[in-house]
Specification:
18% strand; lyase; single chain; PYR_CT; 283 residues; metal ion binding; Aldolase_TIM; TIM Barrel
Length: 283
């Protein structure tokens, strides 16, 4: 079964002009009507680091979750953020950004990889106590622009450490949009076969013309969980290419359906979401 994760948080967080809380909530409420498996809707991180997400708790209070089958995921960067997020029973998943790059881990969470792994373990314990699940995003999963060590074998070492912590979901993240179809297939093939108890997701960034081939490559490797954002909004500024953004959800849907996957989405609500996205992102 395909799990399709829509990521309004990732689409919004880098926008310098603050998006009104009511507009955020209206957009996420619309996305809740579509039938995505999960919405990566907000984050509990320092408002100094990500000012756009400072109103996540207020947005959550405005969401209409009663008729939606979608689950909610919030990103956290430390134990305090996890504790804040776990105060809200509506949140199903906590996402943590763990990097195979020492440089990026320091830049992203102001911690070493060793300390970040301790944080992952602490959050895992908190989630188990609260009946929640943690999703670890393994960033720089397909390449490293900082000159830090990188290899498929290094990814396997990180996955092994996370498997020892009983992690159920790991999302391999192409933070800077450098993954090739061959590497995507290789990484997912190796990991899905070595760790069948773990669900591996793809959080890829891409130029628009490469989205379809990257989805197909991940499918070939055994991936059945995909993150995206409508129109590909958002992405990592470190990619240094304004055309590299999130994987456009509507393109992923078209690709997945062309391969015979039944996604059970409400297409009329998806069309409304696409219209509203243009307004929210002023595009």
């Amino acid at each position: 079964m395909i799990q399709l994760i829509e990521c309004p948080r990732d689409a919004m967080q880098g926008i310098p002009d603050f998006i009104d809380t009511a507009i955020k909530a209206a957009y996420i409420n619309q996305l809740l009507e579509v039938g995505f498996h999960t919405l990566d809707f907000g984050s509990f991180v320092s408002p100094k680091a990500i000012p756009q997400m400072r109103d996540t708790a207020e947005v959550l209070d405005m969401l209409d979750l009663h008729k939606s089958k979608s689950k909610l995921l919030a990103i956290v960067a430390n134990v305090r953020g996890a504790e804040d997020a776990l105060q809200f029973p509506e949140i199903d998943f906590l996402g943590f950004p763990l990097s195979v790059s020492e440089t990026f881990q320091q830049r992203n969470t102001n911690a070493s990889i060793a300390d970040a792994l301790k944080t992952v373990e602490a959050i895992q314990n908190l989630c188990e106590a609260k009946g929640k699940k943690q999703v670890v995003y393994l960033s720089m999963g397909f390449g490293n622009p900082y000159g830090d060590p990188y290899s498929p074998e290094l990814i396997a070492e990180f996955v092994e450490k996370l498997a020892q912590l009983q992690m159920e979901t790991i999302s391999l993240s192409d933070t800077i949009g450098v993954a090739t179809p061959g590497l995507i297939t290789q990484l997912f093939e190796v990991q899905t076969q070595a760790f069948p108890q773990i669900r591996f997701g793809a959080h890829l960034h891409s130029r628009p013309e490469s989205i379809g081939e990257k989805v197909l490559a991940a499918l070939q490797g055994g991936c059945r969980r995909f993150d995206g954002a409508l129109y590909g909004f958002g992405g990592c500024p470190m990619a240094k290419d304004e055309l590299v953004g999130n994987m456009a959800t509507e393109v992923m849907i078209e690709t997945l359906e062309s391969q015979g996957f039944e996604l059970n989405l409400d297409k009329s609500e998806l069309a409304e979401s696409l219209k509203l996205a243009r307004f929210v992102f002023n595009s």
